[in-house]
Design a protein that fits this description.
Layout: H1 2-7, E1 14-18, H2 23-49, H3 52-60, H4 63-78, E2 80-84, E3 87-92, E4 98-103, E5 107-113, H5 116-121, E6 123-130, E7 136-143, H6 145-160, H7 171-183, H8 189-204
Antiparallel strand pairs: 1-2, 2-3, 3-4, 5-6, 6-7
Helix pairs in contact: 2-3, 2-4, 7-8
């Protein structure tokens, strides 16, 4: 939260902080831990069959997958998606930081998609359609996407009370926003058709 606090402006406060679902971290980290365990076993065998010095060399290689697993975890932990009372902030990077933010007043619509696994494990993808040059902010594999989306909607509604138009989240308005982005050249025809088809599947579900 210390880094996030340095990004906040006067009168701005954090409403919610989210990350990618841990399931996408567990797979990679699990593989590296298995590799480390295999190297430990191999080192013990080599130490018995060849000599302690050879076993020690093989055992030292254990630190490589452990270090990679640690870096993976830190990257996951430091990647944050934040909603404040003014904007949506994406923070990425372990040493070199990349910060992307979108003002709530520029948010046109939010398109949320969930696979069957996403519904079971409570993660999903949010595509935030904005009036900025980027056009679409895509938050993949977001944990608790309903809660994150609700925080955006609530914050946007509060802005609406101060004279900004409220956020509309019906399918028709999403299509209008997508067409606007396509006509402005911010979405290709293939991307437009893909998002339109996904929206239809979401409406049917």
């Amino acid at each position: 939260m210390a880094y996030i606090g340095g990004l906040l402006g006067e009168g701005e406060h954090v409403l919610i902080v989210a990350r990618r679902h841990p399931i996408f971290l567990a797979g990679w980290v699990g593989l590296y831990l298995i590799a480390a365990a295999a190297l430990i076993g191999l080192g013990a065998w080599v130490g018995t069959a060849v000599g302690m010095w050879a076993g020690a060399i093989v055992g030292a290689l254990t630190f490589i997958p452990l270090a990679i697993a640690l870096v993976r975890f830190l990257h996951w932990h430091r990647e944050q998606f934040v909603v404040t009372n003014y904007r949506i902030i994406q923070i990425q990077g372990l040493f070199n930081k990349r910060v992307l933010d979108s003002s709530l007043e520029k948010v046109n619509d939010i398109l949320m998609t969930q696979s069957l696994m996403g519904r079971l494990c409570n993660y999903g993808t949010l595509e935030i359609l904005t009036g900025s040059e980027i056009g679409v902010n895509r938050l993949d594999a977001l944990s608790e996407p309903f809660r994150f989306k609700r925080a955006i909607l609530d914050a946007r509604t509060r802005l609406g009370r101060d004279g900004e138009p409220p956020l509309v989240e019906d399918g028709a308005s999403v299509l209008v926003a997508l067409e606007t982005l396509r006509n402005a050249g911010l979405l290709s025809e293939d991307e437009y058709q893909e998002k339109r088809a996904r929206l239809r599947r979401t409406d049917v579900a």
